[in-house]
Amino acid sequence: MEESKIVQYFEGKTIFITGATGYLAKIFLEKILRVQPKLKKLFLLIRAEDKRSAEQRLHEEVLNTELFRVLKEKYGADLCPFLLSKIIPVCGDVSYENLGISDSKLREEMWQEVDIIVNSAATTRFDERYILFGVGQFIFQEFPHELNNDMNYL
Ligand SMILES: NC(=O)c1ccc[n+]([C@@H]2O[C@H](COP(=O)([O-])OP(=O)(O)OC[C@H]3O[C@@H](n4cnc5c(N)ncnc54)[C@H](OP(=O)(O)O)[C@@H]3O)[C@@H](O)[C@H]2O)c1
Q1: Which of 33, 99, 102, 115 has its CA at a distance of 20 to 30 angstroms from the CA of residue 148?
Q2: Cβ–Cβ under 8 Å, residues 123 and 132
Q3: How far is ligand 1, taken at its centre, from the CA of residue 68, in Å?
């Protein structure tokens, strides 16, 4: 597929990314924000105690890294409002029921709005128990909205 068609495909789409603090997800996040600023929304699943800690991890481990330098140069002072308008950090853990997202209102909003799921949550420690090691693989999946009430879909 031509690159321009791929970029166009993401216009107006809402994407749910798990493993958002990880290597691959960060690269995907930076690229999609850079090449398709007209995407609608990004829900980023982050393991954290609460929303505030999730926001803190997002800033410290993702947005304030060298990877986002080009976006900073491109947007300057407008970067912060741009990111705030697109990104919603979500506190959760894929090994729990409902992905550990305790806020039912937020869950409902996500399940109504998400078009694409990028599952990048994984434990990549080779000394981890096998059952945990198998938790994730990098998966790109269009989300069928008719399944949006089935929280076990993932
Ligand atoms: N890196 C590559 O070159 C490559 C190539 C092909 C395929 N893959 C596959 O792509 C996936 C991601 O790889 P990666 O290199 O990006 O891994 P990574 O840097 O280790 O990132 C893993 C991410 O998953 C999160 N995570 C772990 N357990 C979780 C849980 N229970 N709930 C929610 N989030 C959880 C981690 O969060 P914390 O920060 O909280 O630990 C982290 O954000 C893996 O399945 C890997 O096998 C990677």
Answers
A1: 33
A2: yes
A3: 19
CA-closest residue to ligand 1 atom 39:
21
Nearest CA to ligand 1 atom 33: 93
* Phi then psi dihedrals of residue 118, to 5 deg: -115, 105
27 CA from centroid of ligand 1 (Å): 12
**Whole-number average pLDDT of the chain:** 87
What tens digit of pLDDT does each residue of 15-67 get? 999 999 999 999 999 999 999 999 999 999 999 999 999 999 999 999 999 99
User: Could you give the maximum distance between any two Cα atoms of the chain, in Å?
Assistant: 45
Q: Whose CA is nearest to atom 10 of ligand 1?
A: 138
For the chain, the domains span 3-147
d(CA 151, CA 100): 11
